[in-house]
Amino acid sequence: MFFYIIALLIIAFDQWTKWLIVKNFTLGESMTVIEDFLYITSHRNTGAAWGILEGQMWFFYLITVIVIIGIIYYMQTHAKGKWLLQLSLALILGGAIGNFIDRLWRKEVVDFIHTFPFGYNFPIFNVADSSLCIGVVLLLIQMIREEREVK
Ligand SMILES: CCC[C@@H]1OC(=O)[C@@H](C)C[C@H](C)CCCCC(=O)CCC[C@@H](CC)/C=C/C=C(\COC)CC[C@@H](O)[C@@H](O)C[C@H](O)CNC1=O
Predict the structure, then answer these.
(1) Given ligand 1 and candidates 132, 137, 138, 141, which is best to mutate, with the most ligand atoms within 8 Å of its CB?
(2) What is the ipTM of this complex?
(3) Which residues neighbour 123 within 8 Å (Cβ) at sequence distance 6 or greater?
């Protein structure tokens, strides 16, 4: 149950931040947070990471539904009692649904976190993407750890 609350909190926070950007920023408008490193820039993406597969909404709906069903199934079977695994799945589920709502409702994803790590203009992303990435990394760490334990 804890898992669903985490996912809901992520969805709520993601949608609230996107709503703030849409309400307070014109498209393309940018605000400096940390000079040369972190900006809030209002951006839209009809694709996935780096704008790949731009406009292929049906593909994104399909993939997202598969991700959501897969996670809920995995939650009810293998993740019982493993709180770190449940947290990882909650982060991925929350992120996937957060972007899914945008794709259904807005037909595009609202992005605003604009960073320049090592001077590279990293693609502008959002809270849902961050949650997805952190969840994926945590999941990979656990899979590697389980792999080692077996050997
Ligand atoms: C993070 C997954 C992207 C997210 O996937 C989703 O929604 C899932 C639930 C549905 C997708 C259709 C399926 C996954 C596609 C996989 C993918 O794309 C390769 C991912 C590499 C990743 C390593 C994990 C690098 C990182 C990238 C970025 C995020 O950095 C924090 C840049 C994000 C910006 O390009 C931003 O414009 C993206 C926009 O917000 C829409 N977001 C999505 O499509």
Answers:
(1) 132
(2) 0.93
(3) 45, 49, 50, 51, 111
Q: Which residues contact 10 (CB under 8 A, 6 or more apart)?
A: 90, 91, 94, 95, 98, 127, 128, 131
> Is residue 151 pLDDT above 80, yes or no?
no
Catalytic residue IDs: 111, 129
For the Cβ of 49 lying below 6 angstroms from any atom of ligand 1, the answer is yes
Cα–ligand 1 centroid distance for 110 (angstroms): 12
Instruction: Enumerate residues 6+ apart whose C-beta is below 8 A from 18.
Output: 102, 110, 112, 126, 127
Predicted model pTM: 0.93
28, pLDDT greater than 80: yes
Name the residue at shortest CA distance from atom 20 of ligand 1: 49
Q: How far apart, in whole angstroms, are the C-alpha atoms of residue 143 and residue 99?
A: 25
The structure tokens listed for 129 are: 């993407």
Whose alpha carbon is nearest atom 21 of ligand 1? 49
Q: Tally the residues of the chain.
A: 151
